[in-house]
Write a structure and sequence with these properties.
This protein is mainly α. Helix content is about 70%, strand content about 0%. The protein has seven helices and no strands.
Length: about 130
């Protein structure tokens, strides 16, 4: 797990809050955290937990995974994978069995591509597909 980059996170949160046209107090109330605590996060003085980031993301109507990446809790590839999974699971046009099959196919493609990448990095011949 990467170390927290709270300065970058704070700047990003402030930018998102201003874009949403929320005061610090309004966002703190919506996220269920104290005004001083949120201010300290924005100024890079506090390291928020994943739970607090999730509450703030919900209040801002942005992806919690985006904040996790900004905070160094999650890397970009993990965020993309989680978001892809969330989109599949949230799709109302397919049933639960279809969602599970689609996730299994998605996982198999990711494993296949990871194996190909390792083979390319090590100069070995990847297994035939």
């Amino acid at each position: 797990m990467a170390s927290l980059n709270v300065g970058n996170l704070g700047e990003y949160l402030r930018e998102q809050r201003r874009t949403a046209q929320l005061s610090l107090r309004q966002l703190a109330d919506a996220a269920g955290v104290s005004n001083p605590y949120l201010s300290q996060i924005e100024r890079g003085l506090r390291k928020p937990s994943a739970e607090v980031l999730q509450q703030v993301a919900k209040a801002l109507r942005i992806s919690a995974e985006t904040l996790y990446v900004r905070a160094g809790i999650l890397d970009e590839k993990e965020r993309e994978e989680l978001e892809t999974r969330a989109v599949i699971l949230a799709d109302p046009s397919i049933n639960e069995r279809q969602k599970q099959v689609l996730l299994q196919i998605y996982d198999s493609f990711r494993k296949e591509n990871a194996a190909d990448a390792v083979a390319a990095d090590t100069g070995t011949v990847p297994p035939s597909h």
